[in-house]
Amino acid sequence: MNFHPAIDITKNDEYYDNLYKMVNSYLDSENDWLAQLSNVTALLNETLPQINWVGFYLLKDNQLIVGPFQGKMACTRIALDKGVCGAAATQLKTIRVDNVHKFENHISCDSASFSEIVFPLFYPNKKATLETLIGVLDIDSPVFARFSETDEKGLEKIALLISEKVKWPNSPTL
User: Fold this and answer.
1) Phi first, then psi: what are they for 114, rounded to 5°?
2) Of 73, 116, 121, 167, which residue is the least packed, with the fewest Cβ within 10 Å?
3) The domain spanning residue 124 has which CATH number?
4) Which residues pair with 95 in a beta bridge?
5) How many CB atoms lie within 10 A of CB 77?
6) CB–CB of 152/96 below 8 Å?
7) Strand duo 77-79 + 63-71: pairing
8) 118-162, pLDDT tens digit by residue?
9) What pTM does this model have?
10) Does the pLDDT at position 53 exceed 90?
């Protein structure tokens, strides 16, 4: 895909349909969960315009621990009651924030991030509960209100695909 920075291609469903196909194809071609997550972050970082961080936080010992990511050095551990990642994890739903500086308990890992979207990930074929939570997919942007409803819908499908296709370790905790 060839992207032009002056055109916001993420405002159409075709963009996300193509990105979904790319992620799906890659996940089908690799069976190691760490390699899968690592290259999915690279793919999202390469293809999503106006982002400055994308990665996974994985649930371990009742906290979120940084996993594969692309961007500046990140917060290593996030309590479940802190930040957008903690809120998405405990509320078991996607959280989109137009201005992270107005989000209660926001954790500022990178002062250049102004908006954020976080998707919880669950073990496949399991009801969404804290016991089935694997972690979250976190995407930050240096632009206020970067993520639209179209972004949320498209990326939510990709997060669900990741939950279903990644070859997660058999243990209920990573």
Assistant:
1) -120, -25
2) 73
3) 3.30.450.40
4) 118
5) 12
6) yes
7) antiparallel
8) 999 999 988 999 999 999 999 999 999 999 999 999 999 999 999
9) 0.91
10) yes
The DSSP secondary-structure symbol of 27 reads: H
Extract the tokens encoding 36.
Answer: 């899968």
One DSSP character per residue, 43-98 reads HHHHHSTT-SEEEEEEEETTEEEEEEEEES---SEEETTSHHHHHHHHHTS-EEES
pLDDT tens per residue, range 86-97: 999 999 999 999
Report DSSP state, residue 7.
S
Residue whose structure tokens are 């690279």: 42
Q: Give the tokens for residue 89.
A: 């994890």
Residue (of 74, 38, 66, 22) closest to 166 by Cα position: 38
Domain assignment present for 171 = no
Judge whether 10 and 48 are in contact, CB under 8 Å.
Answer: yes
Residues in the chain: 174
Q: How many domains does the chain have?
A: 1
Q: What's the pLDDT at 105?
A: 77
Give the domain range for residue 25. 9-165
